[in-house]
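Lab manual, section 2.4: Encoding a predicted structure.

Procedure: take the sequence of the chain (193 residues), apply the prediction step described in section 2.3, and record the output as structure tokens. A sample record is shown.
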Amino acid sequence: MEPNQPDSRRKILDAARDVFADTGFRGGTIGAIANAAGVNRALIYYYFDSKEDIYRALLENGLAAFHDLFAQLPPEDAPVRERLHAFVRPYIGLCFDAGGLSRMVRRELVAADVGIDMVAAPFRDILQRLAGILAAGIDSGQLRPIDPMAAAWSLLGMMNITQEVALLTDEPIDPDSAAARALDLFLNGMQAR
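Recorded output:
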């Protein structure tokens, strides 16, 4: 494959995503990525300076979509339920669409390997923004007073586990239904009313 072919870089990144998802940052090698992409190592170095550069490019490209969700939220004066739904549904959809990226991120979070620092920073930002939405809901009286960061962690956990459930049960999960269930449980709890 020639360096100037437009899909060369994409092919390398796709292969790298799968390699890192299977082996983690530490276990992934330039050689394994080259083999998986069907290219020689020199072509990889044409596009990237190091394995870390490849990993960082994957995270930046993949996580940009998650950050873009905040730009699509209803205005701050909209009801918190509406703002949360506008975030939760696309977030769950992205978890399913991201494929290997989701596996790659989960692997680093569980293994706490050297790639954890590159994974953690974007998620801290997502948590901060989500906590901001919840804090605004608390301030406006739409939500009861609770630590917004703890609540953000809980909601993020509920959203992320959806993909795990799909993998463990082999049941297809509709992102719309999953989002509705997660939000209902998060906002209304299980207590009978």
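Check your result against the sample. The chain is about 75% helix and 0% strand.
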